[in-house]
Amino acid sequence: MKTVYFTPLMAILLSASSFFQPPRKKVIFFGDSITEAAVKPGGYIQLMDSLIAAGNKSSQYELVGAGISGNKIYDLYLRIEDDVIKQRPDIVVIYVGVNDVWHKASSGTGTDYSKFGRFYEAVVNKLQAAGAKVIVCTPAVIGERTDHSNQQDGDLNLYSQWLRTFCVNRQLPLVDLRNIFIRYNLENNPQNKESGILTTDRVHLNAAGNLLVATSLWKAVEKIQ
Question: pTM (2 decimals)?
Answer without folding.
Answer: 0.90
